[in-house]
Design goal:
Layout lengths: L21 H16 L4 H7 L4 H9 L6 H11 L23 H14 L2 H12 L3 H16 L1 H18 L2
Helix pairs in contact: 1-3, 1-5, 2-3
């Protein structure tokens, strides 16, 4: 009987914190992000790749490992290459140093959770529809300027709403 390896090819333990392997969580995070950007529910994606809703939840949490065949099906359903799921994954460089830290990956997961907000999902989908990159950059600069002074922006919006209501617009 062949015993499954618990480490990588260098004999190092897998990157894990007891809640599943780091790459499984990363693949799940990327899958969830793309699903939300496309406006799909977990159930929609599960049906598209002939999975149960519960299995899709496990994949997105990184609780279950996605097979190569299933990853290919997910990529097709989400209109991305299979490489998309591995983009920005923290790997070791040739000198053994980490390219990305676990903290950076954790911040990415938290960002994905915010993408679940319907307004943010709508914002992302709308920005993807902007075909001209110069227009997209202008919108991003405008939003960045607004967030730099969020209180002032909120006051300006309230003033604009009050003006629109008073003028009958």
């Amino acid at each position: 009987m062949v015993k499954a390896s618990t480490g990588n090819h260098r004999g190092k333990p897998p990157i894990s914190n007891g809640q599943g392997h780091q790459i499984d969580r990363h693949v799940g995070m990327r899958s969830k992000a793309r699903r939300l950007i496309r406006g799909m529910t977990q159930e929609d994606l599960a049906k598209a790749v002939a999975l149960s809703f519960q299995q899709m939840q496990k994949y997105e949490r990184g609780a279950n490992r996605v097979s190569a065949g299933r990853l290919y099906e997910l990529a097709r359903a989400l209109s991305v290459s299979t490489q998309y799921f591995f983009d920005e994954f923290g790997e070791e460089g040739e000198d053994g140093t980490s390219i990305r830290t676990l903290r950076e990956d954790h911040a990415d997961v938290e960002s994905v959770d915010r993408i679940g907000n319907p307004e943010i999902s709508e914002l992302v989908r709308s920005s993807i529809k902007l075909k001209r990159s110069d227009v997209r950059r202008t919108v991003i600069r405008l939003m960045s300027a607004m967030t730099a002074n969020a209180e002032e922006a909120a006051a300006a919006l309230e003033a604009n709403s009050a003006w629109a209501n008073d003028s009958g617009a």
